[in-house]
Automatic annotation (TrEMBL):
Pfam families in the cross-refs: CDP-OH_P_tran_2, CDP-OH_P_transf
Annotated family: Belongs to the CDP-alcohol phosphatidyltransferase class-I family.
Protein name (record): CDP-diacylglycerol--serine O-phosphatidyltransferase
GO cellular component: endomembrane system; membrane
Length: 278
């Protein structure tokens, strides 16, 4: 009977159970900032459901600021990772796709019932498609260096902050009556189309990597003044920034066409092009 049920004895050379390697703190900090932005976006939805639209808008603005910070912190600390990139995309969909759509639906689009909800869905889905396309374009090895100065379509934070222009105007005294709900609906639909469009918009990511020494102090003064204006007159500044951004879209598209023509003119001719010219 002892041969049928031999006693268990582990092998002396049996490999030890695998342990996960510790994660550096520099990899965790950017993801924590991203999660804080998600918390702000979800809190904005809750505030909108409670009828507190002003703090809801401020929460979205704060989420947009954190969205601009987390990537730069990750690059500064050399803590970029594929996990962080995917988490950032999911956070952008929540903060700049779902949250603004739900806020505007609760604010004014609910007066149009199902039609208003359909447009809110279109905006959220357009933001998801825009983020998916952005992630795919990052993996394109043939993308020219100068194209990093431009986004394809309206970026997610800009789309979220711009689409809330009806809220800014309402806070400034322009009453958003139920009769104006169709205007807000059309405006939201236009922004959704701009988000998924191929219209180039200026990004500014590669501008200002090095600043001349004589411009340092003026930049500090202008930054402090802009921050003070934003704190003192938040909705006036947000409304002006939204209108200014919309007006600047044709300028960015024109600049993109000029850069594309210059790139095509200076690009070396390929053998196929020389054969066709002959």
């Amino acid at each position: 009977m002892d041969d049928l049920f031999p006693p268990f004895a582990p092998e002396p050379n049996e490999p030890k159970p695998r342990r996960f390697k510790p994660v550096p703190v520099r990899m965790i900090i950017p993801n924590m900032i991203t999660l804080m932005a998600v918390c702000l976006g979800l809190t904005a939805v809750r505030l909108a459901f409670e009828g507190k639209f002003e703090p809801a808008v401020i929460a979205i603005v704060a989420a947009a600021v954190l969205d601009g910070v987390d990537g730069r912190v990750a690059r500064l600390l050399k803590g970029t990772s594929r996990f962080g990139a995917e988490l950032d995309s999911l956070a952008d969909f929540v903060n700049f796709g779902c949250a603004p759509a739900l806020i505007l639906y609760t604010f004014v689009l609910h007066n149009l019932k199902s039609l208003g909800w359909i447009v809110a869905l279109i905006f959220a889905i357009a933001m998801a498609l825009r983020l998916a396309r952005f992630n795919v374009m990052l993996d394109d090895p043939n993308r020219p260096e100068w194209k990093k100065d431009f986004f394809v379509g309206m970026p997610a934070p800009a789309g979220a902050l711009t689409v809330m222009l009806p809220l800014y105007l309402h806070f400034l005294g322009f009453e958003m009556a139920p009769s104006l709900a169709p205007v807000a609906l059309i405006y939201m639909l236009v922004i959704a189309l701009m988000v998924i469009s191929t219209v180039p918009t200026f990004s500014g990511k590669t501008v200002g990597k090095r600043v001349p020494r004589e411009y340092v102090l003026p930049i500090f003064v202008v930054t402090v003044a802009a921050f003070g204006l934003l704190i003192s007159f938040p909705f006036e500044i947000l409304a002006l920034l939204s209108l200014g951004y919309l007006c600047a879209i044709p300028v960015g598209a024109n600049q993109y066409r000029r850069r594309a023509k210059l790139d095509a003119a200076t690009a070396p001719a390929t053998p196929g092009d020389e054969a066709s010219a002959a």
